[in-house]
Amino acid sequence: MRRIFDKWEKLSIKYKLFSITTSLLIALALIIYLILYFLLPSYYHEYKIESLQESLKSLVDSSIHFDTYTLEERLYYMAKDQNLAILLKDNQGKIGYSKYMINSLEDEYRTSIPIYTKDAKDGPYTLELVMPLQPIDEANEVIRKLMPYIISIAILIAIIGAYIYSIVITKPLINIIESEREQEYRRKDF
């Protein structure tokens, strides 16, 4: 350990700055990648569920003013926009509307709520929704496969950036140090 410390002390300021900057940039790139890899799926799931719940709340609040046909039309666009499977049943369990009903998936969000329309005779409809959540798992797999390339590019950018940074920063410092040495020699000579 002492040898490493001694070698570090002997390095010029340019190489020290280069090493520190490269290490920081690589660490930053890895931290960003790891945050994306580990937090993106849970954040995405929460975001999709919150978005669906907001849409549902808005639909339920306004459905009292719709007839069944308008509700079905809104459900169609909601299913299309949010990739949902929708089933609308009356209070006897008879299916009134169905859109994109899919088989049970491992990673999905299901909800069922009562919904009223202005032309509902026998009470509220039951709206069942299924939202698949697997697309983010696929994206996570793609991120995992791209990891070697991402890390390679991050290291390359870190090295180039650190090299340019160390040259730009150390050049004025070296000039200042050399001018100080020169002035010191002149004082000694004087």
Could you please describe the fold and organization of this structure?
There is one protein chain. 68% of the residues lie in helices and 14% in strands. The mean pLDDT is 82. Helix 2 (13-63) runs antiparallel to helix 3 and helix 2 packs antiparallel against helix 4 (135-189). By secondary structure, it is of the alpha+beta class. It has 4 helices and 4 strands. It has helices at residues 2-10, 13-63, 68-82, 135-189, and strands at residues 85-89, 95-99, 108-115, 125-132. Strands 2-1-4-3 form a 4-stranded antiparallel beta sheet, with helices on one face. The longest helix has 55 residues, at 135-189.
What are the key terms here?
190 residues, alpha+beta
Radius of gyration: 31 Å
Mean pLDDT: 82
What's the overall geometry?
rod-shaped
What is the strand arrangement across the widest sheet? 2-1-4-3
Please tally the β strands and state the result. 4
- Structure classification: alpha+beta
Helix content estimate: 55-70%
Give me a quick take on this structure:
This protein is α+β, with helices and mostly antiparallel strands and 190 residues long. It has four helices and four strands, in the order αααββββα. α2 packs antiparallel against α3 and α2 runs antiparallel to α4.
